[in-house]
Design brief:
This protein is mainly beta. The protein has three helices and 35 strands.
């Protein structure tokens, strides 16, 4: 590849289930040093047990980006071989785009090691008050302070809405708001990617009441904080100032590619909407307008700490001497949670097939393509009924069975690593994304059981070394059981370009019942005819995670025989996973468009597997 930016194999992404990708090995470094002294002092005064504690956490990370040596990445999605630009009647072939060398996007970055630094201070006080011999209250308050997120050598870069951009936008305006901030120049007094936070107070309350000798009622309410900025949320900004990088996405909605694979990278194929990729590959600039015309990342300087209220009420009752049952309500409400967003998505009221201002110019910040990052504005709600019954090992039998009936709703599934699928159509209205979480499993039953045959040495019957005891004694079987309803998923249009929003997914219009008709099988899990393509230049009325996938069933079993040989025990055991070889299918194709039929092509649990083991204990 003539426009490679490093002496390694480039990354080639050919999208779609039909195709493949090529990529080099990945270079990465990750060193983490943590210093965490803490202490707790307990003071007993009458009915009060007071706890005072504190903690200091110093985190030092020396790392590179994942794949920080990069020749370049190009993506081929089929938009340039579609029959008609602006429709989804006949989609193109990603592999055909690749054969033509017409890339929809390009990026490259070669960056050095960087050194994130952050510190956290925490203190708490808790009072355990024994009101009566059978009633205890717990009241506490926790404070957390955070120094913010920065880099040891100011190697930081973020788009900032308060920095003046000296560049001239497509309308001829200069000195508009919205430009790049750098750790070395510290524009507007901002001296790090994310500012310190010193006002996090987290109250806690709980109680335990022994209503009867065999019945206990417990409950609790607490506010908890968790800081995503300590993880990869800030990594796009930390470590970005130094090194070389550049990127470009198609701003012509499938008319012209950003680069042709056989070119040298010096040609601008997109006219006024783009630039040549070589001109966008920059070497550690520090001017506010240096990245005009590219996609950039942002982290707001002042961001709240994500918080969640958690609460529960539980009744536990002893059933006899060896069995206990629990039933509990468990709930939570989260707020200020992470919501991924492109600040430069074209607003819904400006979507248009024939945009007189040009597809890029309709963006709120026309000097840039996408402006990606996170706002901390999302909410979540979880409510569940949980029931458990457990028996300790007596008379050769032990078991634990539990059932959960729950509902989990949110606007996004925030996490630091290995997240669920984040799907959003209108990034300006997070509430439109409120619905079932990717992890909304309404019903779940799990159990485990062990049974020892009461025959043989150490057992109730034939407790000797007779030949009969050796044959029929020493047997043990066990099993684990899991059944749960399916996870939800979001139905989207296969080709999202015709929303003309320039980012985000495109929800279809719902015109029927997805569960109607002869569906629910692996060839067509839901009724694809219940969805239709919206008018180009409009958003669909579909919603996030509105259809549920197949349930999961899995039973594992084990059968073992113990042989007592003098002072040793020989155990022969057979273990089987998915013992009944029951198929549990994965999620279906969730795209709407030609060739997409809601087919399921994967499983979540592998087929039956059996292993034989022997163990000698002496």
């Amino acid at each position: 590849m003539q426009f490679a930016k490093a002496d390694i194999f480039p990354e080639i992404n050919v999208t779609g289930g039909c195709c493949w990708g090529l990529a080099p090995g990945t270079n990465a470094i990750q060193h983490q040093i943590m210093f965490e002294p803490s202490d707790v002092v307990t003071l007993i005064r009458g009915k009060h047990v007071l706890h005072f504690g504190g903690e200091y956490l110093n985190q030092e990370i020396n790392a590179t980006f994942w794949g920080n040596v990069d020749a370049g990445s190009t993506t081929y999605s089929g938009v340039y071989t579609a029959s008609t630009q602006g429709t989804s009647n006949v989609t193109g072939l990603p592999y055909a785009d690749f054969l033509l060398g017409q890339a929809q996007s390009w990026s490259a970055a070669n960056t050095p090691e960087f050194y994130p630094r952050t510190k956290t201070l925490q203190a708490f006080v808790q009072d355990d008050i024994k009101i009566r011999h059978n009633l205890t209250f717990n009241v506490g308050l926790r404070w957390e302070g955070w120094t913010g997120m920065g880099e040891a050598h100011n190697n930081e870069r973020s788009w900032d809405p308060t920095v003046i951009n000296p560049g001239v936008d497509p309308f001829g305006n200069a000195n508009t708001l919205g430009a790049m901030w750098y750790g070395t120049t510290q524009a507007n007094g901002r001296n790090r990617v994310i500012a310190p936070s010193w006002d996090t107070f987290l109250p806690r309350f709980g109680f335990s009441w022994q209503a009867k000798s065999n019945t206990v009622i417990r409950g609790g309410l607490g506010l908890f904080g968790y800081n995503y900025n300590e993880g990869p949320n800030a990594y796009n900004e930390i470590g970005s100032e130094l090194g070389q990088s550049g990127n470009e996405n198609d701003s012509t909605n499938g008319v012209y590619p950003v680069v042709i694979l056989s070119s040298d990278g010096n040609t601008n194929y997109q006219g006024a909407a783009g630039a040549s990729i070589n001109s966008l590959y920059l070497n550690a600039p520090t001017t506010p307008d240096a990245y005009n015309g590219q996609g950039v990342n942002f982290a707001y300087y002042h961001e709240p700490i994500s918080k969640i209220w958690q609460y529960n009420l539980e009744i536990q009752r002893e059933l006899g001497t060896n069995m206990v049952a629990n039933i509990a309500y468990v709930g939570s409400h989260g707020y200020d949670q992470m919501f991924g967003i492109d600040l430069n998505q074209i607003p819904e009221d400006k979507l248009s097939i024939d945009d007189a201002q040009g597809l890029t110019n309709a963006r709120p910040y026309p000097n840039f393509q996408s402006i990606g990052g996170n706002k901390f504005v999302a909410i979540s709600n979880y409510n569940a009924l949980q029931a458990t019954i457990e028996k300790r090992l007596t008379s050769g039998l032990q078991f634990n069975f539990n059932y959960t009936w729950s509902k989990f709703l949110n606007e996004a599934d925030p996490c630091a690593w290995n997240c669920g699928t984040f799907t959003v159509q209108n990034m300006y209205v997070p509430s439109q994304n409120y619905g079932p979480s990717d992890y909304d499993i309404r019903n779940m039953f799990k159990g485990r059981v062990i049974y020892q045959l009461p025959v043989g040495k150490g057992q109730r019957f034939l407790n000797n070394n007779s030949p009969l005891a050796q044959v029929i004694g020493g047997w043990q079987t066990s099993a684990t059981i899991q059944w749960q309803s399916g996870n939800p998923f979001t139905v989207v249009m296969a080709d999202s370009t015709n929303s003309y929003a320039q980012s985000g997914s495109w929800y279809p219009n719902v015109v029927g019942d997805p569960r109607s008709g002869p569906h629910g099988n692996v060839n067509e899990w839901f009724n694809v005819a219940a969805f239709a393509q919206p008018t180009p230049g409009t958003f669909g009325n579909g919603s996030r995670d509105s259809v549920y996938g197949p349930h999961l069933t899995n039973i594992n079993m084990s059968l073992a025989k113990n042989f007592n040989i003098w002072k040793t025990v020989l155990q022969i055991r057979a273990d089987s996973t998915n013992v009944f070889n029951h198929p549990s299918f994965g999620l279906p194709d969730d795209n709407i468009g030609p060739g997409h039929t809601a087919q399921i092509t994967s499983v979540t649990v592998g087929g039956r597997a059996v292993q034989l083991l022997g163990r000698l204990t002496f």
